[in-house]
Design goal:
The protein contains 17 helices and twelve strands. Strand 4, helix 10 and strand 5 form a beta-alpha-beta unit. The radius of gyration is 25 Å and the shape is globular. It has a seven-stranded mixed sheet, sandwiched between helices. Strands 10-12-11 form a three-stranded antiparallel sheet, covered by helices on one side. A two-stranded antiparallel sheet has the order 8-9. The chain has two domains: 261 residues, Type I PLP-dependent aspartate aminotransferase-like (Major domain) (Aspartate Aminotransferase, domain 2, 3-Layer(aba) Sandwich); 126 residues, Aspartate Aminotransferase, domain 1, CATH 3.90.1150.10. The two termini are 18 Å apart. Bound molecules: pyridoxal-5'-phosphate (PLP).
């Protein structure tokens, strides 16, 4: 690699000069009062080492650090399970309309009829897309949706006098949020094995249902599942679980494989979440704001949280709090409203007739990648996949190289790495999700890059072990970064240094 010339940028603290300012305040035209009179003493901090900068310096600081970040507007982002599709800018244009962006949550209902109508229509459009009877738009993320869905299952069983059902079955391949949400909702988790075809082991499911007879509240299943395969036995699975008195929860994070083509509600699922920041093209903005609406069948509808957007006979819209069996409030105000507006614009942009093109192209792209990249790295379960494909890189061990090293080297070729080491049941895996928004040219270039990396692994493994060579930071201490996360800027030392290895 060529050494890139590193310009050492002064930090905003080094740039700071006493009295330098970026704002022009108007002359004070009210009597001045000491700050201590206006703010309680505990809120007063005199020793804050805030930098003093001009507007230009502040602008450059933020633009510079934002451009260090990788994003879907910059390049291909095949992070499996996350559906990092391109976010059409028409969605943002909808959000910029002042009728949406300038409303206040405490405004009287008659002044926000348009916004309430969007919530109402989104509830019914999403219900139609998922094959459900009702939808709550309140959850702020997929994991929050899981927790709501499980709380609804709990409310349902308690209402029927079966509150003793305290067990949730979850496949071993599931996303980590599934068992976490179940545990947080007070459930104990029982594992269900994945068979050699990458699907739910129905015999093991049957055995677990028998072993936990009378205790099962539900089965939490991702479909297509976390190895990117459609659960072909889904109807058998649903009737087994229903027969045991449990409900079927669908982790709908992989809805990009189904949208417009198939509906979880038709497969026997009673409740599910969907991630608007995955399937419905809402940006994954630095960890938020996301949105994880939950759809339910009629049996769970009475328990949905308040408020629900509703329509009166005279055609006006309102927020319905009069729901006696509701589990109550789960989020401030009305959910991530502008995320809902973006997703609604996206759905309208495709329309009922074209939504299926999303899933068809997502699945086609993933299968193209599966077949072509399958010549370089074995596919974990070598069959037609849905919207993503899992490869195992365990053969690289003979060169002393791991999936992690390949992922880091992918950064040098200008791409975001795929998901690594998930699902946990596949050794040394990379999970690649190209999404429908990528052209064949982009996918071809990516495949060529990974093919070159496979050759490098054989000929010059050190290149991979030291990667990335071109990124603003090199290898990070990933455990430290997760366990001792420190994102606060401090004038004493950069926090980034605190977690970097080299
Ligand atoms: C992303 C994802 C989740 C969690 O969704 P968040 O919106 O990140 O909370 C759950 N399950 C699967 C399979 C996912 O891919």
């Amino acid at each position: 690699m060529n050494e890139t010339l590193k310009v050492i940028e002064p930090t905003i603290f080094e740039l700071s000069r006493p009295g330098r300012t970026g704002t022009l305040m108007p002359e004070c035209d009210v009597p001045e009062r000491p700050t201590a009179e206006l703010l309680p003493g505990v809120a007063l901090r005199n020793e804050l080492p805030l930098p003093e900068l001009s507007e230009c310096e502040v602008m450059r600081h933020f633009v510079r650090i934002s451009s260090l970040n990788y994003n879907v507007d910059k390049g291909f982002y095949p992070l499996g399970s996350c559906t990092m599709k391109y976010n059409p800018k028409i969605n943002d244009q909808a959000v910029l309309m002042p009728g949406f962006s300038r409303v206040h949550p405490y405004q009287p209902e008659e002044t926000v009829q348009g916004s309430l109508e969007v919530l109402y229509r989104m509830q019914s459009d999403l219900a139609a897309i998922l094959g459900m009877d009702a939808v709550s738009l309140q959850p702020a993320a997929g994991a929050h949706g899981e927790q709501l869905g499980l709380a609804l299952i709990r409310a349902y069983h308690e209402h029927r006098g079966e509150g003793h059902r305290k067990t949730i079955l979850i496949p071993t391949a599931a996303h980590g949020t599934n068992p976490a949400s179940a545990a947080r909702t007070g459930y104990s988790v029982v594992d269900v094995n994945t068979n050699e075809r990458g699907l739910v082991d129905v015999a093991h499911l049957t055995a677990q249902l028998e072993k936990n007879a009378g205790k099962v509240a539900g089965f939490m299943l991702t479909n297509p599942n976390t190895v990117g395969l459609f659960e072909e036995d889904i109807e058998t699975i649903s009737s087994l679980v229903h027969g045991a008195g449990g409900l079927m929860y669908c982790d709908g994070a992989n809805m990009n494989a189904l949208v417009g083509t198939a509906r979880p509600g038709d497969m026997g699922f009673d409740v599910m979440h969907v991630n608007l920041h995955k399937t419905f093209s809402v940006p994954h903005g630095g960890g938020g704001p996301g949105s994880g609406p939950v759809g339910v069948k009629a049996i769970l509808e009475p328990f949905l949280p308040v408020p629900q957007a509703a329509k009166r006979d005279d055609g006006t819209f309102y927020l319905d709090y009069d729901r006696p069996l509701s589990i109550g409030k789960i989020a401030p105000f009305y959910g991530a409203f502008l995320a809902v507006v973006r997703a609604y614009a996206y759905i309208l942009h495709y329309g009922r007739e074209h939504l299926n093109e999303i899933s068809e192209n997502a699945v086609l792209n993933a299968n193209y990648l599966r077949v072509r990249l399958g010549e370089t790295f074995p596919v974990a379960y070598d069959r037609i996949c849905m919207h993503e494909c899992v490869f195992t890189l365990k053969d690289l061990k003979k060169h002393g190289v791991k999936a992690l090293d390949v992922a880091k080297r992918i950064i040098d070729y200008g791409y975001h790495p795929p998901t690594m080491y998930f699902p946990l049941i596949v050794p040394e895996c990379l999970m690649i999700e190209p999404t429908e928004t990528e052209s064949m040219d982009t996918i071809d270039r990516f495949i060529t890059a990974v093919e070159k990396i496979a050759l490098e692994a054989r000929d010059n493994p050190q290149l991979l072990l030291d990667a990335p060579h071109s990124a603003p930071v090199r290898r990070l201490d990933e455990v430290g970064a997760a366990k001792k996360l420190d994102l606060a800027w401090s004038p004493v030392g950069h926090s980034v240094d605190a977690v970097s290895v080299s």
